[in-house]
């Protein structure tokens, strides 16, 4: 069964490491790009002054996103699966999968039906939310973006820590959620 708990020691040959690193670099680059683009908007309300209510929302939303997006969304859900998928593509490299390793790592193709629905649903949902938030005026947009920046930053750090831990010998304990007929 593809979603069962496993203890897998991924390959650490130079070729496998390079493939897994490529998957991670692509994912991290996408996330860091969003952090860089949103950070100035998140900082702007701090320089323009906010009411006590706006300050409370800025701090509260930021803390909420650190927990909900950073810890629950990234560290507990996305990170283990992304690391497992990066090493899966390294263990079973196919030319297209290797070229598109960042998208493979994010679960956007060659995944279980459920994983595909969840991954693409998340991409579409985030895109819709970004479109809505773009229409907000400051400081409201900055309040939302501050939470997002903190959550993404936490998630990126968690992703890098988990990836390095596996490179240093920690076994994978999460399914890569690949199709049932895929090599295991």
Hey, roughly how much beta strand do the residues contain? under 5%
Number of strands: 0
Which runs of at least 5 residues are low in confidence (pLDDT < 50)?
A: none
| Structural class by SSE content | mainly alpha
Largest sheet: none
Radius of gyration: 18 Å
Overall pLDDT confidence? 93
Features:
6 helices; elongated; membrane; mainly alpha; single chain; 184 residues; transmembrane
Structure description:
By secondary structure, this protein is an all-alpha fold. The chain has 6 helices and no strands. α1 runs antiparallel to α2, α1 packs antiparallel against α6 and α2 runs parallel beside α6. The model has no long low-confidence stretch (mean pLDDT 93).
Short description:
The chain is mainly alpha-helical and 184 residues long. It has 6 helices and no strands.
SSE blueprint and pairings:
Blueprint (H helix, E strand, L loop, with lengths): L13 H35 L3 H40 L3 H5 L1 H5 L7 H22 L5 H28 L17
């Amino acid at each position: 069964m593809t979603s069962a708990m496993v203890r897998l020691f991924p390959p650490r040959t130079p070729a496998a490491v390079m493939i897994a690193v490529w998957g991670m670099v692509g994912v991290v680059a996408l996330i860091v790009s969003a952090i860089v683009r949103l950070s100035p908007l998140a900082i702007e309300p701090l320089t323009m002054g906010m009411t006590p209510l706006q300050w409370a929302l800025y701090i509260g939303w930021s803390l909420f996103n650190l927990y909900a997006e950073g810890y629950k969304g990234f560290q507990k859900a996305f990170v283990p699966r992304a690391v497992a998928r990066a090493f899966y593509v390294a263990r079973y490299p196919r030319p297209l999968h290797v070229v598109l390793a960042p998208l493979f790592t994010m679960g956007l193709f060659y995944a279980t039906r459920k994983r595909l629905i969840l991954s693409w649903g998340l991409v579409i949902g985030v895109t819709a939310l970004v479109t809505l938030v773009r229409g907000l005026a400051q400081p409201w947009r900055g309040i939302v973006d501050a939470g997002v920046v903190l959550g993404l930053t936490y998630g990126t750090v968690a992703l890098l820590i988990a990836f390095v831990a596996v490179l240093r010998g920690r076994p994978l304990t999460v399914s890569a959620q690949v199709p049932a007929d895929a090599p295991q």
